[in-house]
Amino acid sequence: MHEPIFSLEVFPPKRDAPVGTIYDTLDGLEGLMPDFISVTYGTGRRSDRTATARIAKTIHTEYGIPAVAHLTAQYADREVIDQALDMFDDAGVAAVLALRGDSVEGREPAGVFEHASDLAAYIRSRRPNLSIYGACYPETHPEAASPEEDMENLRIKVDSGVDHLVSQLFYDNADFLDFLDRARAAGIQVPIEAGIMPITNEGQVRHMSEVCKARIPAAVESILDRWGDDRASLREAGIIYASQQIADLVAHGVDGIHLYSMNHSGVTRRIWHNVRHLFRQVGAKEEPVSSQK
User: Which residues pair with residue 6 across a beta bridge?
Assistant: First the structure.
């Protein structure tokens, strides 16, 4: 049986937040040694490219962990993408996660890359040897007319050059496992990591579930109803729930787990402490788990 991979996502600090907060997060994750850390990207402004590249370089050079840089398509032209790829080359990124990106009210798309598959094809033409990651939606992309259409679009994305998929969040493993079966039946054979977002804030869970059209199952509703107003208890319940999700998914033989850290190193460390023996992590250290950042 294959060994599942374990990866994390972090994001640059908001524009009005101190830059150093991301380094506090990375310091808090030191010793976990995930297979890679992905760094999110904004809507395509130069500051987004610079921040993503800078953090990716730090992850790669100072922490010795492969970095995957997100890159969004909707508001970019070819020159912007070329500039971003040059920055990522200099940062030593291991792969690019090609995304369409969220829409911004009042901002007009560039009209060059309408879909993530268009961006993936362009990156493949410019960087033939670069690994290209893509996103997938276990419960169907919100804008897809049907699960069948969404799966066909995903197949096009893979055919365009994507060689690794990371799923959007979900809270019922049955939804991901059903999606995985359908993807394999459709001929999609690239690795597909399950994206796990820990429950730490009721408002965040409900907002993200609405944006992604991800179902909130009865078990999660019970957690939110019981501890939604008690942040500390909700965090503890969320750590347990995410750990149980991961254990079940690994037991089902998934390719890997991509944990959305939300820059909460303490929560991430607690979850890793619970599940670390389910993964083969060469060189990983047995670190204390008391950090609550």
Answer: 257
Q: How confident is the model at residue 21 (pLDDT cuts 50, 70, 90)?
A: confident
Question: Measured at the alpha carbon of residue 199, what is the angle toward residues 250 and 69, in degrees to the nearest 5?
Answer: 70
Q: Are 176 and 231 in contact (CB under 8 A)?
A: no
Which amino acid would we find at residue 240? Answer: I
Which has the closest alpha carbon to 29: 232, 274, 272, 236?
A: 272
Distance CA 74, CA 114 (A): 6
Residues 6+ apart with CB under 8 A from 254: 4, 176, 180, 192, 193, 194
Q: Residue 44's pLDDT band (boundaries 50, 70, 90)?
A: low
Euclidean distance between CA atoms 99 and 128, whole angstroms: 18
Write a three-state SS string for 104-115: CCCCCCCCCCCC
Any idea how long the chain is?
293
Q: What percent of the chain has pLDDT over 90?
A: 83
Catalytic choice (9, 108, 210, 287): 9
Task: Give me the percent of the chain exceeding a pLDDT of 70.
Answer: 91
Could you give the count of Cα atoms lying within 13 Å of 24 in the half-sphere of its Cβ?
13
Name the one residue in this structure whose structure tokens are 């640059």. Answer: 12
d(CA 182, CA 144) in angstroms, rounded, equals 16
Q: What is the DSSP code (8-state) at residue 35?
A: S
Please work out, in degrees rounded to the nearest 5, the angle formed at the alpha carbon of residue 59 by the alpha carbons of 42 and 103.
10
Q: Is 9 assigned a catalytic role? A: yes
